[in-house]
Amino acid sequence: MSTELNEADMAAVARGQKLFVESFNEKATVASAAPGRVNLIGEHTDYNDGFVFPLALEKSTYLVGKALPEGQECEVVSEAMEGVVAKFMAEDSPASESVPGWARYVKGMTAIYARNGYKVVPFRAAIVSDVPLGSGLSSSAALEMATAVLIEALSDLQVDASKRALMGQSCEHEFAKVPCGIMDQLISSRGESGRALLIDCRSLEATAVPLDDPEAVIVVANSNVQHKLSGSEYPTRRRQCADAAKAMGAKHHEQKISHLRDCTLEMLESVKDELDADTVRRATHGISEDVRTLKAKSCLENGDLAGAGKLMHESHVSLRDLFEVSTKEIDALVEIAMGVEGVYGSRITGGGFGGCTVTLVKKSAVDELIKAIEEEYPRASGGLKATTFATKAGKGARVVTHLLA
Ligand code: GAF
Fold first, then answer.
1. What are the phi and psi torsion angles at 36 (to 5°)?
2. How many domains, in total, are found in the chain?
């Protein structure tokens, strides 16, 4: 799991080491890193046991750390929260809220590892991150997975990458109170350089699809409208999907239906009158998004960028009109992108209610796309500026020890 460092890794680890020395008057010995993610297609399908198609970003969250003697409290600092040292016992119960919000992800991971029977060595750690916070690019999953890898390195533990992701998901549920699916933690834990992963969220099997077309670029545009999932909307969407699957399960009991993944639009039609209109719209998205995601994977495997882009935009329309998780700023970004010659497709990415778009675009049209966003987005959004970056698929969670040796 230990990998070669690139420039971004080196710069971030150096920042982390500096913060560690300033905070604790000694040097860290180990560094871990885990990426944020961008999802190409397959949105709000993970908790329906369906399919998602994300890639790891080249931007990561890093922890530099050092083991402490048995019985001591963990001590954690963050570049984003200068001067605050969060302290807690590694095996403390999740219910305790005695640490600041950002540190709960770290404390949550130590508690969940301990609860799963792993012997967690206490540690000091400094956190730095290149993943934009609150932008729908999974900064919290990156922090969970980077914490997990640091715990494993310092405590000499071998943990399967999917099990690590599942423990991160529990952390999110219990500590951040977000009833998320498995996509973000899984891609952060298992992401592969140069490849997107088609993940079956029921079996957790992942198929790597190379993103090696030199003519195609993935551009992320941040609306700079903060995205927050801990309110009521995300849990409500989850419940509506579950309600629809339950109704179809009751009607078609011979078919073993537990989630929307098992349903078809015909089955939904057969229970339409038993459900409210919102629930029917949510389920229509959930069922059709799985179909689009599998088709988009085939398109990319076959070099059909136009086909993949068309499906991405259809996904956006569905998330906007049926699942209702978009915002006017995100819709503006998508519309601007779709108006640029050479753009294959553009859509909201991640949980929604703000955050980012993902656009698949011809290499020769990237500058035009960025110019259009710079010129037109402030007008459409009432003065906001978007932040854009092109990305390839980066590495999953990893140890970056040798720099600190
Ligand atoms: C958020 C959640 F954390 C994911 O599990 C997923 O449901 C996503 O929203 C929507 O696809 O990122």
1. -75, -175
2. 2
**Ligand 1 centroid – CA 289 distance (Å):** 14
List beta partners, residue 207. 198
The kind and range of the H/E element at 160 are: none
Catalytic residue, chosen from 184, 278, 290, 321, is: 184
Looking up tokens 């150096």, which residue turns up?
A: 14
Annotated catalytic, 184? Answer: yes
Do residues 193 and 314 both lie within one domain?
A: no
User: What string of pLDDT tens digits covers the 405 residues of the chain?
Assistant: 555 678 899 999 999 999 999 999 999 999 999 999 999 999 999 999 999 999 999 999 999 999 999 999 999 999 999 889 999 999 877 656 678 888 999 999 999 999 999 999 999 999 999 999 989 999 999 999 999 999 999 999 999 999 999 999 999 999 888 999 999 999 999 999 999 999 999 999 999 999 999 999 999 999 999 877 667 899 999 999 999 999 999 999 999 999 999 999 999 999 999 999 999 999 999 999 999 999 999 999 999 999 999 999 999 999 999 999 999 999 999 999 999 999 999 999 999 999 999 999 999 999 999 999 999 999 999 999 999 999 999 999 999 976 776
Contact 205, 54 (CB under 8 A): no
Ligand 1 atom closest to residue 43's alpha carbon, by position in its atom list: 11
The pair of three-digit structure tokens given for residue 352, joined into one six-digit string? 């929604």
264 CA from centroid of ligand 1 (Å): 22
CATH code where residue 241 lies:
3.30.70.890
In testing the pocket of ligand 1, which one of 183, 185, 188 has its CB within 8 Å of the most ligand atoms?
183
For the chain, give the number of residues: 405
Ligand 1 center–CA 160 separation, angstroms:
22
- CA of 180 from ligand 1 middle (Å) equals 6
Is the Cβ atom of 62 under 6 angstroms away from ligand 1?
Answer: no
Instruction: For a ligand 1 pocket test, name from 180, 234, 285 the mutation site with the most ligand atoms within 8 angstroms of its C-beta.
Output: 180
User: Is residue 192 located within the same domain as residue 220?
Assistant: no
Residues 99 and 228 in one domain: no
86 with 121, same domain: the answer is yes
149 and 192 co-located in one domain: yes
As a whole number of angstroms, the distance between CA 341 and CA 359 comes to 13
In whole angstroms, what is the distance from residue 328 CA to residue 337 CA? 14
Which ligand 1 atom sits nearest the alpha carbon of residue 141?
Answer: 3
Is the ipTM beyond the 0.90 threshold?
Answer: yes
Alpha-carbon gap, residue 83 to 80, rounded angstroms: 10
